[in-house]
Amino acid sequence: MRTQVAIIGAGPAGLTLARQLALQGIESIVVEHRDRAYIENRTRAGILEQPTVTLMHELGAGTRLAVEGMDHDGFFLRFDRTTHRLNFHRLIGGHATVYAQQELVKDLVALRLEEDGPILFETKVVGIDTRADGATLRAERAGEIVTIEADFVAACDGFHGVGRAHIPDSERIEITRTYPVAWLGILARTAPATPEGMYCAHEDGLSLHSMRGPRITRQYLQVPADTDLDDWPDERIWDELTRRSESIDHPELERGEIFDRSLAPLRSVVCETMQKGRLFLLGDAAHIVPPAGAKGLNLAVSDACVLSYALGAHYKAGIREHLDSYSTTCLPRIWQAQYFSWLLTTTIHALSDDPMDLRLRLTRMQRWVESEDEQRALGEVYLGLPFPTPWAYN
Ligand code: FAD
Ligand code: DHB
């Protein structure tokens, strides 16, 4: 097989890039390790920034999103048993939209298969070879080896993929921080606690109350990093969510059937070496943000815009410089998202027993709810900084 761009991974980064390339008349092959049902049902992110929503409309992937997505103006913040509302829309316009990642994946998969070309499902890339004039992927499919020749490789293969590992350790600048906590996430059949998502910064740890619809909630609990899900029967989860979200101004949390549960570690990683020759890293393959603030999916989409634009410039106008500057174009926005996620993470989680830390966190949150300047600064990043480049080269 031969193509212009070989894309490893059919997550948000790979599927967005594939669509952007198709709309620019650039061929690609998408190779995905898992089957279609698996990627269309994987429970993960849920908050889309305004630029992500606008982009999905431009890509023709916004029809269901427009109907089923829920626009939120900001979020609620609860501390000292008191609820506050941060309304960013009022200050700067735009929205965050609640729309599950797997729904976006379904929409992009359908578009790709109907209009743009195949996705090689159940095909695992096992080898990458890059040269001055092109690249070769070796993949395993039903026990056979498939070879794909391409001009470029877009590694959109997530944190544990083969793309980043292709860049030798000695050449890779990678900056990492791990936190001693994880998020235990559930989906449950209950009404949302508040009309928009709510972070509860209890002194024993965070609880987060989000939603996927009027009768489905997505809720998270801060737990120790070495937590075993088996130690958390439903009763214990509800007791802890209820305790951490106690307030003087709202009724107690509604309980219901829990039908999905998972653990996610908290870490920050930026691989600043996002390219080597004809290989480019996008999304989680290049960086991980801790989940507070919901930036991961949105960053994946932002990287896809930058690479799509650079490949457009290369194929349409013979301009190479945007490809050469891919990493340096992406990195400032990635670091802004890392900073925001770090700020939120260290403010709303209980990460130490030190009473000084607790007082300082409460003081910071008090400032957030009192100062419009602080809210504007938070809101600009929460609702989404502009993407570094347009996605299409004209
Ligand atoms: P992925 O979605 O991981 O896709 C990579 C794909 O590559 C996968 O389909 C994988 O099967 C495939 N692959 C891997 N290796 C190979 C191989 N060798 N060959 C072929 N295919 C391969 N982000 C937000 O923006 N908002 C949120 O609210 C949010 N909440 C989250 C909650 C949780 C619990 C978790 C875990 C994450 C959350 N995130 C959130 C992060 C978000 O889900 C990720 O940042 C996002 O999925 C990154 O997209 P991606 O396309 O880069 O990678
Ligand atoms: C959700 C995820 C987040 O990381 C967050 O900060 C807020 C909401 C969610 O899954 O709905």
Summarize the structure in words.
This is p-hydroxybenzoate 3-monooxygenase. Keywords: FAD, Flavoprotein. Residues 2-338 form the FAD-binding domain. This protein is an alpha+beta fold and 394 residues long. It has a domain at 2-72 and 101-177 and 268-350: FAD/NAD(P)-binding domain, CATH 3.50.50. 36% of the residues lie in helices and 31% in strands. The chain has twelve helices and 19 strands. The strands form three sheets. Strands 1, 2, 8, 9, 10, 11, 17 and 18 form an eight-stranded mixed beta sheet that branches. Strands 6-5-13-14-15-12-16-19 form an eight-stranded mixed beta sheet. A hairpin with a 2-residue loop joins strand 13 (198-202) and strand 14. Helix 1 packs parallel to helix 6 (101-116) and helix 8 (296-317) runs antiparallel to helix 10 (326-348). The longest helix has 23 residues, at 326-348. It is globular. The model has no long low-confidence stretch (mean pLDDT 97). 3,4-dihydroxybenzoic acid (DHB) binds next to strand 14.
